Amino acid sequence: MIRTIAASGLCVGLGLAGPVAADPATGSLFAARQPLFSIQSGTRDAVSSASLFVDRAEGGLFAALPGRLDAPLRHGGTKAARLRDLIARAEAGRAGYDAVQHGARVKPPRRPTDMTLQDIYDWIEATPGQPHAIGRYQFIPPTLRHSAARLDLPASTRFSPAVQDRLADLLLGDAGLMKVKAGEMSVDTFMLNLARIWAGLPIPSGRSYYDGVAGNKATMTYEAYASQVRGILGG
């Protein structure tokens, strides 16, 4: 779920061998166990992941992602950009930067990319009791607010594709992108960290880290996920 975007916790209750060490500096990232993390303990959006509506044909701002989710990604671009493409494929589907979580009964009044952050906050406040994951990386309210504050983005900032990418890059950094590029973190740990942030990505069992929580499920196989991440980081 930018879930966003971020959710996390140690490997509890999922049949993994044990906890995977995270950078102590990002400990707060891995503190809440819901799709797309909540910075404040106990804060939870009703439903937080676009993986709930991948493969569902819906009108409005969302259209189901056609074809295979494990198809090769485009070549070229920075590692961060290619990772963002992978995450967006798992989370947002064809609607991309204008995706709104399927379960939101009351959609925003305009396309998300035409809204300011304040417009989005106002929509959230006006529509309690429904999921509010929004954008290409399916940011949930606490993640969006906290990440925007970390980047010193004023409420008047438009939720543009460039801004969404900046917010996602912040979470990629929290997951350890710089460390894995520098050889200071294993690729497996980095992949698990990403899967703890975005519920559409699988853990080694092939399931979402949040499988069954509010309907979340992985939207690609672990083999495809691992192959793509390793290809990106090695390219």
Key features of this structure:
mainly alpha; 7 helices
Number of helices: 7
Low-confidence stretches: 2-76
The percent of residues in helical segments reads 25-40%
Strand elements, count: 0
**Main sheet attributes: strand count, strand direction, barrel closure:** none
The share of residues in extended strands comes to under 5%
Estimate the mean pLDDT confidence: 75
The span between the termini is 27 Å
Instruction: Return the structural class.
Output: mainly alpha
Task: Please tell me about this protein's structure.
The chain has 235 residues and is mainly alpha-helical. The protein is 33% helix and 0% strand. The chain contains seven helices and no strands. The protein is globular and about 45 Å long. Residues 2-76 have low confidence and may be disordered.
Task: Record the SSE blueprint.
Blueprint: H1 79-91, H2 117-126, H3 141-150, H4 161-175, H5 177-181, H6 187-197, H7 222-234
Quick overview of this protein structure:
The protein has helices at residues 79-91, 117-126, 141-150, 161-175, 177-181, 187-197, 222-234. It is built from seven helices and no strands.
